[in-house]
Amino acid sequence: MTAPAVGTRHAAREGSPSQTRTATSRLAIAAAVLALLLAAMDATVMGTVLPSVLKDVASGSGGGYAWLVSGFMLAQVAGTPLAGWAADRIDDRLLAAGATIAFLAASAAAGFADSFGVLVAARVLHGLAAGAIVVSSYVIVGRLLGPQRRAAAQGMLSMVWGIAAVLGPVVGAAITSALGWRWVFFVNIPLCLLVLTAVLIALPKRTQATNARQPSHRFPSAEYALVTGGAALLLISLQGSSLGIGPFGSGAAAVVGLTALVLLRRFGNSLVPRQVYSRTPSAGAALATIGACVVMYATVTVLPVRLAELGASTTKIAVIVGLAAIGWVAGSAVTGSVVAKRGYRLPMVIGSVALAVSTVFSATGELPWLAGATVGLGTGAVTAATLALIQDQAPAEQLGVATAAATMLRNVGAAVGVNSIAALSAVLATSSHAGNRAFWALTIVVALTVLVPALLAPRRRTLTK
Fold first, then answer.
1. Beta carbons of 288 and 388 less than 8 angstroms apart
2. Burial class (CB in 10 A: 0-12, 13-18, 19+), 67
3. Residues 6 or more apart from 219 whose CB is under 8 A from it?
4. Nearest to residue 62, comparing CAs of 265, 282, 244?
5. Which of 155-169, 248-262, 266-280, 379-393 has the highest mean predicted lDDT (pLDDT)?
6. C-alpha–C-alpha distance, residues 380 and 370, integer Å
7. Quick one: 445 exposed, middle or buried, by C-beta within 10 A (0-12, 13-18, 19+)?
8. DSSP H helices in 45-66
9. 444 Cβ partners below 8 Å, 6+ apart?
10. What is residue 370's three-state secondary structure?
11. Higher pLDDT among residues 8 and 331, named by residue
12. Which among 55, 187, 247, 265 is most buried, taking Cβ atoms within 10 Å?
C-alpha cells in the first residue's frame, strides 16, 4: 500500500490533499532517482579519472591503485545488506538522509585528498554510502507507489544504470579535462545537498500497518559476517592478480567465500530472504540476475578489446559500448510495464534470447553493433523482471533486505563477468580463436543460468502480503 504522505491529517485545510500528496511524492521520487544516478555514476567514473589521479596523488602507490576500485566495490558489498536491514526498521528519511550525507562527506574527502591513503579511505566511504543509497532509492519508490505500481517504477529506476554507464565516463572525462579530476567529486556536493533538501521536505514519515509483523531489531551479526565476508572474499578472489595475492590466495579466498555463502542456507533470513536461496521462483530470479550481469559485463569488457585487435576505430568501439548502455535503458523501461501486465516469464525469456543473440554474434564477429545492443537490451529486461519478482515474493517487512539482495547479486555478477572472461581469454590466449571460444562459453552461461530460470519463472505476477 502506498505510504501516507505528509499533510494527510490536515485534509481540512485549504488545498487538495491529493494534489499535495502527489506533488510531494513526485519530489521524493525525483530525489531518489537523482541519488541513485549519483551512486551509479560514481561506480563508473573512476576508470576515466584514474590516469590523472595516478599522476597526482598515487604515483608512489605501485600496484596499490587497484584498491581505488576494489575498495569501493568491497565497501559497497558491506554496506548493501546493512542498508537493507536498516530499511526495514528505521524511517526512510533517516536512511536516505544518512546515506546522502555520507556520500557528500566522501566526495569532499576525495576532492581534497592530498595522499593516496586518504583517497582510498574516501572511496571506501563512497562505496558504503553508494550501497545504502541504491537500497534506499529502490525502497522509497517501492513504498511510495505501492505493490501495484512498483514493477513499472522499478523498471524506471533500472534505466538509471544504463544512463550512468554512458554518462559516467563521458562526464568524468569532460570535467577532468576542463577543471581537473578533483572536480569530478566536488560536483557531487551541491547535488547531494539538493537530494538532502528534497528528502527532508518531501519524503513522508513511514508508518507501519497495524497488522504488519514487526521485524526484530536484534542485529544478525553472524549472518552479516557470512554475507559480507563471503561476497567480499569472492570478489577478492576474482581480482587476485590486480590485488597481488597470487593464484593460491585467490583460490583460498574463493573456497572460503563460497563456503560462507553456502552456510547462509542454515543461518540466513534476516539479511537475505530465505526464498532467494531456496527452491522458489526468487532463487531462479537470483540465478538469472547473476547470469545476465556476467554476460553483460564480460561482453562490454572483452568485445571492445577484440574489435580493437581487428582494427576497429575508437569511435566505432565507443558507439557499440554506447548501444549496450542504451539497450539496457530501453530494456528496463519496457519491462516494468510488461511485468505489471503480463507477468515475469515473458520479459525474462525475451531477455534471455537477446543475450544469446549477443553472445553468438560476438563469437562469430558479425554485426558487432547488434551484439552490443542486444546484450544491453537483454540485461535490462532480465534484471528489471527479476528485481520485481524478488521484491514481490518478499513479505512487506522484508522489502529492504530483498532489494539489498538483488543489488548484491548484480554486483557479484558484474565482478564475475569482468574477471572471469579476462581469465578465460588468458587461458585460451594460445589459440587464434580465443575470443570466439570465450563468447561461446558465455552462450552456455546464458542457456543454463538465464534461459532455464526464465522458462521456470511464474507466468503471472503474484504479490506476497
1. no
2. buried
3. 85
4. 244
5. 379-393
6. 15
7. buried
8. 46-56
9. none
10. helix
11. 331
12. 187
